[in-house]
Amino acid sequence: MKVIVTGCNGLVGSALVRQCIASDKISHVFALTRKPLDEAVAKSPKATVILHDDFSTLPPALLHQLAGAEGCLWAIGGRATQFPDVETYRKVQVDYTVAAAKAFRETLAPQLPEGAQFRFVFCSGKFAEWDQAKPLHFMADTRRVKGQVEQGLCEVADADAAKRFVVYCARPSGILPADAGFAARAAGKLYSAIDVDHLAKALVRILLEGHKERIIENDTLLAL
């Protein structure tokens, strides 16, 4: 399988790239990124690093470079507090993600062999909330925007009459880096945190095999 990975310089995205390169079930990785990646990825025969600055649009020339991709692992985003304001966060999280999903549905999915589906796996977050009017007492902006992305992606998939484009939204709780210390891991047990490499393996498995649920909660990710 040939796959697209985004957010490649981030905690989750970089782990996804490593897992994809290591998997014998993935033949090639298109690392779609705003910034250059480390030498190990750039020189891997299984990876093509594609620099792209404006994720609000995916022009035909870029989609041509991605031809043959059968799925995408989307890890652009994070928490609202990591952005200068909610409007910027919503643009990056919602607009970029949904625009890419539409482009892949319209361009890449129809290129696949008959009966094959393009799988779009979005790294969302625990407690993502679709109801934009619901009062929330913690991480409100992050949860609402994540929910808005999930809803938008599901609408993109549902609009595909041919059912060639499918969406999975994974909702990890806190994510622990590989070098997390004892204190961080002890605290992480309080909210069922997941190791980033475990999360990456779970997301790659969902990409390769699909899943019975469209929304995949943290407990399920921990079990994969």
Protein described:
Helices cover 41% and strands 18% of the residues. It is globular and about 45 Å long. Strand 4, helix 4 and strand 5 (118-123) form a beta-alpha-beta unit. The chain has a single domain (2-223), classed as Rossmann fold (3-Layer(aba) Sandwich), CATH 3.40.50.720. It is built from 8 helices and 9 strands. The chain starts with a strand and ends with a helix.
Spell out the blueprint of helices and strands:
Layout: E1 2-6, H1 11-22, E2 28-33, H2 39-42, E3 47-51, H3 60-65, E4 71-74, H4 86-108, E5 118-123, H5 140-158, E6 165-171, E7 175-176, H6 182-188, E8 194-195, H7 196-209, E9 215-217, H8 218-223
Helix pairs in contact: 1-7, 4-5
Labels describing this entry:
single chain; 224 residues; alpha/beta; 7-stranded parallel beta sheet; 41% helix
Radius of gyration: 17 Å
Assess the beta-strand content as a share of residues. Answer: 15-25%
What name goes with the CATH superfamily?
NAD(P)-binding Rossmann-like Domain
How are strands sequenced across the largest beta sheet? 3-2-1-4-5-6-9
Strand segment tally: 9
Quote the CATH topology. Rossmann fold
Total helix count? 8
Number of domains as seen in the coordinates? 1
Organism: Parachaetomium inaequale
Protein name: NAD(P)-binding domain-containing protein
InterPro entries: NAD(P)-bd_dom_sf
